[in-house]
Structures are given as C-alpha cells and as structure tokens.
C-alpha cells in the first residue's frame, strides 16, 4: 500500500509544486488575445507559466515571441473547446468521465500544494533537522582522497614514446604546461582547458594513469611518461585533497531539501492512507468490467 501511495502521490503535484509565485496585475487580468467572444487573459498566461520550471518560465518571459505563441495556442485550444461544447461532446458519458478526471487531477494537485504548505517548518527548525541527519549519517559524508590533474596525451598513431620523452624534457626545462597541452595534446576534452581534468577519485581512471596521478605529491610536480591503451601521457599535479569529511556547511542545502522532501512525502502518504483506509471496494464490479473489456478485444 505504501509503495502504491508513493507512486500515486508523487505523480501528482507536478504542475504546481515547483511553481513560484508570479506577479499579478493590480488592475486584474487583461485580455491578451480574443476572437468571437473567446479571450485569453493575463490570468490564463500566469496559470500556464506556473506549470513550467523556473528556468523555462524565465526563458519564456524573456522572449515575447514565445509568449505570443503561447497566447495563440491557448486561444486555439479554448476556441476548439467551445466548438466541442456547441457540438455536445461534453454530454457524452465517457467524455464527461474524462473531463472529471482532468478536473480531479488539477484540483488534487492544488490540494497537495496546500498540504505541502502545512508541513513546512521555519528555516532554523529545518537547519536543526538537517544537522541531526548529518550527525546520524557520518559515513555518508566521508570524502575520499582526490587529485586535480592536467595532462598531455600523445594518442596512439599520433605520437611515440620518444616524442613524449622530448616533450617531458621541455616541460622540465620550464615550458608552460597549459600552453603545451593546448598545442600538443590529442585529448579533445581537456586540451582546450590546458589539459585540466578537474578533480577525480581513485577508480575513475585507467590504472597506469591513476597510479601516476596519486603518486604526485607537490602542486606543479610532473610525472614521467605514462603509457595506457590511449597512448602516452604526461601528468602535472594541480591540487590534491586528502580524504576527510564534508563539512555540514557543504551539504546543508542538500540536507535541508532532503528533510523538507521527507516531511512533504510523509504528509502525503498519511493523507493517502487516511483517504483509502475507509474506502469501500467493489471487486465484483471491477472484475466484470475487466472481463467485458478483455472479451471485446480482437483475437490475437
């Protein structure tokens, strides 16, 4: 039951839960586009924008052409809906059931947002709960040793060990590593960044490369020529981080979101159980419906 409720309730609220408040006009909704008595107002646009993620919403608002297309699409849909009503399509039993389901979905999403608001706690209480979670799960926040490496790759077929050795000799004489990486490296992912691979932990790279990387101890230190299945590498240590614990400050925002998500999910599950625990099921009606639907299907 809990798993079913989780799937059901997490599937709701998609349109509204992530929505941020928009600025409503002090003069009320204005008409944006209309035809033959059918109009789309600024309230309609606000409703449609609330369905979008903050990033998409911001992009839409910064592009008047996109907003114009959205207004036109909403008008088109509303005119077609009016035509459907005039044709009596809303009187059909199955169509009425479809409309009821759509209304149920929207209203249930609104109610879930209302439930979510009720379980919100103030920022200090949220921080306190996040700190308790941090202290109770110390192992989760262990950070393995990391190194940040620049490298130059002479790929198989593009360079030889002798060329790599000469390149290493030039670097030891003072040649600029980043400049050489941009000019000489055959690694398209890092060459443009001066060979920078960023931080990585053990187990992320091929063994010969990894062994050489973690053997470097001093920033700026160079490896010897390292061979892998990709070719010949020269590594330079940029920075290393010893193994340790992530501080609470580093993970506080993540844990506060986790705590709030747990509070919200628990409240939704509790409401779902409350609703369903007294529901009266009619298995015989469901079985008769399934049997009739299966009988109506064409033979395989």
From TrEMBL:
Similarity comment: family membership: Belongs to the PpiC/parvulin rotamase family.
Domain PpiC residue range list: 144-239
UniProt EC number: 5.2.1.8
Protein name, UniProt field: peptidylprolyl isomerase
Signal peptide (residue range): none
Catalysed transformations (reactions): [protein]-peptidylproline (omega=180) = [protein]-peptidylproline (omega=0)
A Pfam family the protein falls into: Rotamase_3
UniProt KW Transcription keyword: no
PANTHER family per the UniProt record, alphabetical: PEPTIDYL-PROLYL CIS-TRANS ISOMERASE HP_0175-RELATED, PEPTIDYLPROLYL ISOMERASE
Keywords on record: Isomerase, Rotamase
Origin superkingdom: Bacteria
Single Gene Ontology MF annotation: peptidyl-prolyl cis-trans isomerase activity
Native source organism of the sequence: Curvibacter cyanobacteriorum
């Amino acid at each position: 039951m809990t798993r079913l409720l989780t799937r059901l309730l997490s599937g709701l609220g998609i349109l509204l839960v992530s929505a941020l408040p928009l600025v409503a006009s002090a003069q009320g909704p204005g008409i944006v586009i209309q035809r033959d008595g059918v109009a789309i107002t600024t309230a309609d646009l606000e409703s449609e924008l609330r369905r979008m993620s903050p990033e998409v919403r911001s992009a839409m608002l910064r592009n008047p052409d996109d907003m114009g297309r959205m207004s036109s699409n909403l008008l088109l849909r509303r005119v077609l809906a009016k035509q459907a009503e005039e044709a009596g399509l809303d009187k059909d039993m199955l169509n009425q059931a479809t409309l009821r389901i759509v209304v149920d979905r929207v209203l249930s999403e609104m109610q879930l947002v209302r439930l979510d608001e009720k379980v919100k706690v103030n920022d200090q209480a949220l921080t306190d709960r996040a700190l308790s979670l941090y202290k109770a799960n110390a192992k989760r926040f262990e950070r393995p040793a990391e190194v940040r490496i620049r490298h130059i790759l002479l790929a198989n077929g593009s360079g030889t060990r002798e060329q790599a050795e000469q390149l290493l000799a030039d670097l030891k004489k003072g040649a600029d590593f980043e400049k050489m990486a941009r000019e000489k490296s055959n690694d398209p992912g890092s060459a443009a960044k001066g060979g920078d691979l960023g931080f990585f932990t053990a187990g992320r790279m091929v063994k010969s490369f990894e062994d050489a990387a973690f053997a470097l101890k001093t920033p700026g230190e160079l490896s010897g020529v390292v061979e892998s299945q990709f070719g010949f590498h020269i590594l330079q240590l940029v920075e290393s981080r010893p193994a340790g614990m992530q501080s609470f400050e580093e993970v506080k925002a993540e844990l506060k979101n986790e705590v709030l998500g747990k509070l919200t999910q628990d409240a939704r599950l509790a409401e779902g159980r409350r609703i369903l625990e007294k529901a009266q099921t009619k298995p015989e009606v469901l079985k008769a419906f399934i049997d009739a639907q299966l009988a109506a299907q064409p033979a395989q």
